[in-house]
Amino acid sequence: MRIRNRSIINRKLLFLAGAVAAVAVVRSISKRKRRYSGMKLKRSIEVDRPASELYAFWRQVENLPKLADVLTSVENIGGPWSRWTIHRGGTQLSWESEVTVDRENEMIGWRSKEGAAVETAGYVRFEPGRNGTVVRVALEYSLPAGRIGAALASIFGSRPGAVIQDALRRFKQLMETGEVARAEMVGSGKL
Question: Of the CATH numbers 3.30.530.20, 3.30.930.10, 3.40.350.10, 1.10.10.10, which one belongs to the domain with range 35-177?
Answer without folding.
Answer: 3.30.530.20
